[in-house]
Amino acid sequence: MIVLAMAAAHSSNRMLKDAIFEANQACMDAMAVHGADAVTNATIGVVLDEEGKLAVLPTMEKVYRSLAMSELAAYAPIVGLPDYLNSVIDLTFADNKPEAHFSAIATAGGTGAIHHAIANYAERGEAVLTSDWFWGNYNVICVETGKRLETFTLFDEGQNFNIADFKNKVDELLKKQDSLLIILNTPAHNPTGFALSESDWDAVLDIVKPYTTSKGKRISILVDIAYIDFAGEKNETRKFMRKFSNLPENLFVMISFSMSKSYTLYGQRTGALVAVSSSKAVVDEFNQVGKYSNRAIWSNVNRGAQALLVKLQQDKTTYAAFEHERQELYNLVQSRANIFVNEAKQCGLNFLPYKGGFFIAVPAKDPAAICNKLHDELVFAVPLKLGIRVAACSVSLDKMKGIAAKMKAAFDKCNKA
Amino acid sequence: MIVLAMAAAHSSNRMLKDAIFEANQACMDAMAVHGADAVTNATIGVVLDEEGKLAVLPTMEKVYRSLAMSELAAYAPIVGLPDYLNSVIDLTFADNKPEAHFSAIATAGGTGAIHHAIANYAERGEAVLTSDWFWGNYNVICVETGKRLETFTLFDEGQNFNIADFKNKVDELLKKQDSLLIILNTPAHNPTGFALSESDWDAVLDIVKPYTTSKGKRISILVDIAYIDFAGEKNETRKFMRKFSNLPENLFVMISFSMSKSYTLYGQRTGALVAVSSSKAVVDEFNQVGKYSNRAIWSNVNRGAQALLVKLQQDKTTYAAFEHERQELYNLVQSRANIFVNEAKQCGLNFLPYKGGFFIAVPAKDPAAICNKLHDELVFAVPLKLGIRVAACSVSLDKMKGIAAKMKAAFDKCNKA
């Protein structure tokens, strides 16, 4: 007897396409042949130091190493350690707490936070809205949870935030569905490095607010701030959060917090989903559904990493030292990005408006062809659907030099061919 | 405008009932009044030492402390570190590998493994089958993933495995649905400490196998072995796994592996789902859907804990030392359980057949009433639906003495009332 599938009908044909893994594998293969020094790996999404090693912030390590084994080994409460959740809320907003009710739920990394928002704040079978340049995992989470991802065009012709298309898509979807979850990854958007300006945020809120007076409409905005601490000055990059003051009750804001990038603790899988609402009832419901999802999916979240954040944040001197180290790491990433940006301008390579973060994006009609052509120069980047992702976080200053020109040449060759 | 709910329709009315938390809270309140020494807390589901502190196995701690920070901080591959997955398979079966294809996917704890099995191996809206004494979270996971939990009666009148009712329920469900996921938590079942015997397992397989010749029927068995290393000798407790050799292709076995209890690393949230099938295609599909779920839900799993297991298991001397320490911890838990079991027999308190593990269960018509009565004696246990759960894992030898008699007295008082 031949059995084609044992998995459930909704799962069995799911197949993860992993462009980043494939690009990285191609790079590893090239390194094996040509040696690591000759090859540039612009595929990796973590900060590496100038020697190509994972950058781990020393004060974070010191505090982590000081944790008692019982703190590392014991279960955490289902929703997270109370002190962790308080620290998360303080760190999320810095001095920009809006007038609102808050809550937070510990999650398995930023991914877990986004998962919970999509799982619990979009109706089954309905659309979740994000920009056409997006972290591919948003779509994977939508499929896993039985939702559908739709996109608006992120940039207009002047490479500004495309307010008109955002409005079109919101209008279109809210004709068809009463509930809408919108995901905005800002500042330091993955993969472009773009950030919504203060006036972009005003436009976004002005577009969705009129719907809140319609009976039964429910709008949620998830702000993915995974890269925020590599986007600029703490309070400058968080200023937009003040706009979440006194929103209508049926306009709900969630913010996904991640320790991966901001604390160089990627592999410990610790994050949180933060809720902001003018309604206590909405926040209570958030706690209730988040607790349920936590219990059902991972029972509770890595206690050690939670304890680390608390210990790190509660001692002002320690946290100041940590922030100083992180600032230096941010400066390093920014310097690498600046090399690419300046060289791209010089050689006339079009790239998307980079304002900070781990990645720079170059739009392309056939990203795979350009990336393949770049392999001749032993430069490896990630071909996405709409263009090429270059990792400023992981390419050393020295190796970053010349990438833009090589990419421009690859475009020229592909155009000729 | 009044908004009742912002969450999606399928989520908004979910409310976690947490009997364990409530019982533990009542105990904490009593400790605040009477002092910790006067109070017995039999609600906690982790091994505490005789002083009431979390038991952490020293060799595990030593190895954990030896991990490089990069190993703790880096992302793991989506499906897990390859060496971790190999270690998991070796540790799951010990010397009892069936003739079959294997695979494993790292998950966030044992809960994550059970989540993936239910999410991907039961059809939406259909029933998952487990015993009527069950870990309550199975139901939470079913609700979260849009499935339904149904139960068979675990014990017959002689307190043996109720083969007849298992068969009834399998027959009944397979009349209505083509696919069936069966969850068996054995050995050291939570909350009874029961284990299926070799002949119980033969009966289970004899009941489901005839269905595999029917066109389109797909049967999956998830064996939850969270407590297996507190159930007896390594290969004795795993002997049943040999029965998974050369099963029909449409009878798929999954085993949920957890580092929580077996490695005293509860809070690091690291486990795995192991696949056993005579069909390579079924295992390939398992890898594919598991990878998809991992990426969608938590992206990847705690790398540090994975690296720990590899380092611990790959050095034979280290692992032998670790196993010796764990054996001592098992002996301690078993000694505590023996006190209860012997005293219960002496005073005529009926309890379910305990063969090992963290918990002993006492059937009761009104578990809450018995537990409340026990509070007068400053003994705190967990009232479940069908009875009372007593934690042998966390009550010291000294405090365990007399609990059975106090419980018997509570039953007698409640019966009189």
Question: What does it look like?
Answer:
The structure is a homodimer of 417-residue chains. With 417 residues, chain A is an alpha/beta fold. Chain A has two domains: 19-58 and 319-416, Alpha-Beta Complex (Aspartate Aminotransferase, domain 1); 76-314, Aspartate Aminotransferase, domain 2 (3-Layer(aba) Sandwich). Chain A contains 16 helices and twelve strands. Chain A has a seven-stranded mixed β-sheet with strand order 2-8-7-6-5-3-4, with helices on both faces. In chain A, strands 9-12-11 form a three-stranded antiparallel β-sheet. The N and C termini of chain A lie far apart (51 Å). In chain A, 54% of the residues are buried. The mean pLDDT of chain A is 97. At the A-B interface, helix 2, helix 3, helix 5, helix 6 and helix 11 of A face helix 2, helix 3, helix 5, helix 6 and helix 11 of B.
